[in-house]
Structure formats: C-alpha cells, structure tokens
Amino acid sequence: MKENRKQMAGEVIRELAGKFLAENSTSKASLMTVTKVSISPDRANAKIYFTTLPESGEKGALDFAKRHRSEFRQYLKDNSLLSRIPFIDFDIDYGERNRQNIEEISKRAGSFEA
Question: CB 11: neighbour CB atoms within 10 A?
C-alpha cells in the first residue's frame, strides 16, 4: 500500500513538474523534459530528474530549476491533493541521456553494417 502511494505521488509530482517547468522557464532556447521522480521511503524528499534539448542548455536549466524549488513546492501545494509535500530537488537525468546516446551510436553502427 505504501509503495503504491509513493508511486502515485511520484507520478503527480512528475506531471506537475513538467507543467511548472514549461510554464515558468524563461529560456525558450532549450526544451526540458521531466523523465522520472525519486521519492524517499518516508516521502519527505523528492528528486526530479529531467533532460534538456539541446544538451548545451543543461547547466542553465538546472540552475533555473534549483532556483525555483520553493516556488515549485508551492505550486505542488496549490495544484495537488498530496497530503505531504516533500522537499524538492532537481537533477539532470544522465542515465536517460546516456541511453539515448548509446541508442544513436547503435543506429549509426547498424547503418555501416548494411
């Protein structure tokens, strides 16, 4: 039961983080996509992972997200039914980025074999 609540809370946070970042990002030069949310077992902390396109916008996007953590927390309070609003942190999803890079390299390697 607790794991299910944690998953549901993660999904709500992921969806609202995507909306928040899209609505509040001042830089239209990069696209930020929320990929996953990791929540601590006690649901007191949540880390939101995202990717950016182009990758060169990562530092600016991460700085923006970290500067607006408290505003996003208030956004969660105002737009969700979560009983406990966790402390929020943001980070780049390097695993997803690396997976995409490996996929691209594999595609290129496959085109040489044909």
Answer: 11
What is the dihedral sign for C-alpha 18, 36, 70, 43?
positive
Q: What's the one-letter identity of residue 36? A: K
List pLDDT tens digits, range 4-47. Answer: 888 999 999 999 999 999 998 776 667 899 999 999 988 899 99
The residue among 41, 44, 25 whose CA lies nearest residue 33 is 25
Alpha helices in 2-93 (DSSP H): 2-24, 58-67, 69-79
Place of tokens 């979560």: 82
Nearest to 90 by CA among 108, 104, 71: 71
Give residue for tokens 């390697």.
Answer: 109
User: Is 18 within 8 Å of 31 (Cβ atoms)?
Assistant: no
Which pTM value belongs to this model? 0.81
Q: What rounded mean pLDDT belongs to the chain?
A: 88
Total residues belonging to the chain: 114
